[in-house]
Specification:
The protein is of the alpha/beta class. Helix content is about 15%, strand content about 25%. It is built from four helices and twelve strands, in the order E-E-H-E-H-E-E-E-E-E-E-H-H-E-E-E. The strands form two sheets. The chain has a seven-stranded mixed β-sheet with strand order 6-7-8-9-10-11-12. It has a five-stranded mixed β-sheet with strand order 1-2-3-4-5, with no helix packed on it. Strand 2 (about 15), helix 1 and strand 3 (about 50) form a beta-alpha-beta unit. The structure holds zinc ion. Zinc ion binds next to helix 2.
Length: about 210
Protein backbone atom coordinates (compact mmCIF):
# COMPACT_ATOMS: atom_id res chain seq x y z
CA UNK A 1 0.00 0.00 0.00
CA UNK A 2 1.29 3.45 -0.91
CA UNK A 3 1.35 6.19 1.73
CA UNK A 4 1.37 9.58 0.01
CA UNK A 5 1.59 13.18 1.17
CA UNK A 6 0.99 16.20 -1.06
CA UNK A 7 2.60 19.62 -1.11
CA UNK A 8 0.27 22.17 -2.70
CA UNK A 9 2.17 25.29 -3.78
CA UNK A 10 1.47 28.19 -6.12
CA UNK A 11 4.95 29.61 -5.68
CA UNK A 12 3.80 32.02 -3.00
CA UNK A 13 1.65 30.04 -0.61
CA UNK A 14 2.09 26.40 0.20
CA UNK A 15 0.55 23.78 2.43
CA UNK A 16 1.74 20.24 3.05
CA UNK A 17 -1.19 17.85 3.28
CA UNK A 18 -0.34 14.90 5.53
CA UNK A 19 3.17 13.95 6.59
CA UNK A 20 3.50 10.18 6.21
CA UNK A 21 4.58 7.87 9.00
CA UNK A 22 8.17 8.98 9.63
CA UNK A 23 9.79 6.07 11.52
CA UNK A 24 6.59 5.02 13.25
CA UNK A 25 5.33 2.24 11.02
CA UNK A 26 7.18 0.22 8.38
CA UNK A 27 10.83 0.56 7.37
CA UNK A 28 9.77 1.25 3.80
CA UNK A 29 7.94 4.42 4.87
CA UNK A 30 9.24 7.75 6.09
CA UNK A 31 10.56 8.88 2.70
CA UNK A 32 8.78 12.24 2.75
CA UNK A 33 11.84 14.20 3.86
CA UNK A 34 13.96 12.71 1.07
CA UNK A 35 11.17 13.39 -1.42
CA UNK A 36 11.04 17.06 -0.39
CA UNK A 37 14.83 17.25 -0.85
CA UNK A 38 14.47 15.72 -4.29
CA UNK A 39 11.83 18.33 -5.15
CA UNK A 40 14.13 21.13 -3.98
CA UNK A 41 11.86 22.07 -1.07
CA UNK A 42 13.50 23.00 2.21
CA UNK A 43 11.67 21.60 5.21
CA UNK A 44 12.30 24.94 6.90
CA UNK A 45 10.13 26.64 4.25
CA UNK A 46 7.00 24.81 5.35
CA UNK A 47 4.80 26.85 7.67
CA UNK A 48 1.45 25.10 7.19
CA UNK A 49 0.64 21.41 7.47
CA UNK A 50 -2.93 20.20 6.96
CA UNK A 51 -3.85 16.76 8.25
CA UNK A 52 -6.61 14.64 6.70
CA UNK A 53 -7.10 12.60 9.88
CA UNK A 54 -5.46 11.42 13.05
CA UNK A 55 -3.93 8.07 12.01
CA UNK A 56 -0.19 7.60 12.39
CA UNK A 57 0.58 7.25 8.70
CA UNK A 58 -0.67 10.85 8.28
CA UNK A 59 0.49 12.70 11.39
CA UNK A 60 3.66 11.03 12.64
CA UNK A 61 5.86 12.67 10.00
CA UNK A 62 5.49 15.93 11.93
CA UNK A 63 8.27 14.52 14.10
CA UNK A 64 11.52 13.29 12.56
CA UNK A 65 13.05 9.94 13.59
CA UNK A 66 15.49 11.74 15.93
CA UNK A 67 12.56 13.25 17.87
CA UNK A 68 12.97 16.79 16.59
CA UNK A 69 10.25 18.71 14.78
CA UNK A 70 10.43 17.83 11.10
CA UNK A 71 9.34 21.33 10.02
CA UNK A 72 11.21 23.88 12.14
CA UNK A 73 9.25 26.91 10.87
CA UNK A 74 5.87 25.28 11.42
CA UNK A 75 3.20 27.85 12.30
CA UNK A 76 -0.07 25.96 11.90
CA UNK A 77 -1.24 22.33 11.91
CA UNK A 78 -4.76 22.17 10.53
CA UNK A 79 -6.91 19.21 11.57
CA UNK A 80 -10.59 18.40 12.00
CA UNK A 81 -11.69 19.33 15.51
CA UNK A 82 -12.76 15.78 16.38
CA UNK A 83 -9.25 14.47 15.63
CA UNK A 84 -7.37 17.30 17.37
CA UNK A 85 -6.82 15.29 20.56
CA UNK A 86 -4.10 13.24 18.83
CA UNK A 87 -1.40 15.79 19.66
CA UNK A 88 -0.06 14.12 22.79
CA UNK A 89 3.01 11.94 23.41
CA UNK A 90 5.21 11.93 20.33
CA UNK A 91 3.18 14.75 18.78
CA UNK A 92 2.99 16.97 21.87
CA UNK A 93 5.76 19.35 20.71
CA UNK A 94 3.51 20.76 17.96
CA UNK A 95 0.30 20.86 20.00
CA UNK A 96 0.63 24.62 20.58
CA UNK A 97 0.17 25.26 16.84
CA UNK A 98 -2.90 23.12 16.20
CA UNK A 99 -5.75 24.88 14.39
CA UNK A 100 -8.95 22.84 14.83
CA UNK A 101 -11.20 22.91 11.77
CA UNK A 102 -14.90 23.42 12.36
CA UNK A 103 -16.92 23.62 9.14
CA UNK A 104 -15.61 24.65 5.73
CA UNK A 105 -12.42 26.68 6.24
CA UNK A 106 -9.92 28.39 3.92
CA UNK A 107 -6.41 27.20 4.72
CA UNK A 108 -5.03 29.76 2.27
CA UNK A 109 -6.30 31.60 -0.84
CA UNK A 110 -6.34 28.41 -2.92
CA UNK A 111 -6.96 25.55 -0.51
CA UNK A 112 -10.19 24.91 1.38
CA UNK A 113 -10.71 22.37 4.16
CA UNK A 114 -13.96 20.41 3.94
CA UNK A 115 -14.94 18.32 6.96
CA UNK A 116 -15.99 14.84 5.77
CA UNK A 117 -16.43 12.54 8.78
CA UNK A 118 -16.55 8.79 8.30
CA UNK A 119 -13.09 7.24 8.27
CA UNK A 120 -12.56 9.17 11.51
CA UNK A 121 -14.77 11.76 13.18
CA UNK A 122 -12.45 14.59 12.20
CA UNK A 123 -11.58 13.39 8.70
CA UNK A 124 -11.12 16.40 6.43
CA UNK A 125 -10.56 16.60 2.68
CA UNK A 126 -8.82 19.56 1.08
CA UNK A 127 -9.73 21.14 -2.24
CA UNK A 128 -7.14 23.18 -4.12
CA UNK A 129 -8.27 25.49 -6.91
CA UNK A 130 -6.27 26.81 -9.87
CA UNK A 131 -7.00 27.96 -13.42
CA UNK A 132 -6.64 24.31 -14.48
CA UNK A 133 -9.41 23.12 -12.20
CA UNK A 134 -9.61 21.58 -8.77
CA UNK A 135 -7.58 18.95 -6.94
CA UNK A 136 -9.34 17.13 -4.13
CA UNK A 137 -6.87 15.69 -1.64
CA UNK A 138 -9.09 13.09 -0.11
CA UNK A 139 -6.93 11.28 2.46
CA UNK A 140 -8.24 7.81 3.28
CA UNK A 141 -11.44 7.91 1.25
CA UNK A 142 -9.99 4.91 -0.65
CA UNK A 143 -7.59 2.32 0.77
CA UNK A 144 -7.70 -0.29 -1.99
CA UNK A 145 -7.92 1.54 -5.32
CA UNK A 146 -8.12 -1.66 -7.36
CA UNK A 147 -11.42 -2.47 -5.62
CA UNK A 148 -13.09 0.60 -4.18
CA UNK A 149 -13.60 2.64 -7.36
CA UNK A 150 -15.56 -0.12 -9.05
CA UNK A 151 -17.24 -1.00 -5.74
CA UNK A 152 -17.36 2.16 -3.62
CA UNK A 153 -19.73 0.49 -1.18
CA UNK A 154 -16.84 -1.66 0.10
CA UNK A 155 -15.65 -0.39 3.48
CA UNK A 156 -13.07 -1.85 5.80
CA UNK A 157 -12.60 -2.25 9.50
CA UNK A 158 -10.43 0.84 9.91
CA UNK A 159 -13.28 3.03 8.72
CA UNK A 160 -14.41 4.23 12.13
CA UNK A 161 -18.03 4.75 11.05
CA UNK A 162 -18.60 2.52 8.04
CA UNK A 163 -22.01 3.80 6.84
CA UNK A 164 -20.74 7.38 6.99
CA UNK A 165 -17.45 6.44 5.31
CA UNK A 166 -19.33 4.62 2.55
CA UNK A 167 -21.69 7.53 1.93
CA UNK A 168 -18.81 10.02 1.90
CA UNK A 169 -16.84 7.88 -0.57
CA UNK A 170 -19.75 7.71 -3.01
CA UNK A 171 -20.46 11.43 -2.69
CA UNK A 172 -16.81 12.42 -3.23
CA UNK A 173 -16.44 10.11 -6.23
CA UNK A 174 -19.62 11.48 -7.81
CA UNK A 175 -18.31 15.00 -7.29
CA UNK A 176 -14.96 14.08 -8.85
CA UNK A 177 -16.55 12.37 -11.84
CA UNK A 178 -18.66 15.42 -12.70
CA UNK A 179 -16.03 17.19 -14.79
CA UNK A 180 -12.70 16.67 -16.59
CA UNK A 181 -11.16 19.54 -14.64
CA UNK A 182 -11.55 17.71 -11.32
CA UNK A 183 -8.55 15.76 -10.07
CA UNK A 184 -8.14 13.48 -7.09
CA UNK A 185 -5.12 12.91 -4.87
CA UNK A 186 -5.28 10.08 -2.37
CA UNK A 187 -3.07 9.05 0.49
CA UNK A 188 -3.37 5.39 -0.44
CA UNK A 189 -3.82 5.60 -4.19
CA UNK A 190 -0.88 3.98 -5.94
CA UNK A 191 2.07 6.39 -5.74
CA UNK A 192 2.26 9.15 -6.85
CA UNK A 193 -1.49 8.97 -6.35
CA UNK A 194 -3.07 11.64 -8.57
CA UNK A 195 -5.71 10.97 -11.21
CA UNK A 196 -9.14 11.57 -12.68
CA UNK A 197 -12.33 9.77 -11.73
CA UNK A 198 -14.93 8.62 -14.24
CA UNK A 199 -18.15 6.63 -14.09
CA UNK A 200 -18.66 3.01 -15.07
CA UNK A 201 -22.05 1.41 -14.41
CA UNK A 202 -22.89 1.78 -10.74
CA UNK A 203 -19.25 2.41 -9.90
CA UNK A 204 -16.35 4.60 -10.89
CA UNK A 205 -13.00 4.41 -12.66
CA UNK A 206 -9.64 5.95 -11.82
CA UNK A 207 -7.15 7.06 -14.47
CA UNK A 208 -3.79 7.96 -13.00
CA UNK A 209 -2.10 11.07 -14.42
CA UNK A 210 1.29 9.46 -13.90
CA UNK A 211 1.53 5.66 -14.02
CA UNK A 212 2.09 4.27 -10.53
CA UNK A 213 5.66 3.49 -9.62
CA UNK A 214 6.31 -0.06 -8.49
ZN1 LIG B 1 -4.04 6.13 6.07
Amino acid sequence: MSVNAFLISDGTQSVLIDTGASNAWHDTMGSLYAALDEAGVERSSITDVAITHRHEDHVNGLIAPDGTEAFPALERVWIGVDDASVFTGRLAPVSDRVVPIIGKTQVNDRVAALPTPGHTGGRTVYEATSSTGTLLVCGDTVHVPSLQFTRPEVSWELDGHQPQARAARKELMAHLAAGPDRFVAGAHLDSPGVGRVGRSGDGFTLDYLTPPSS
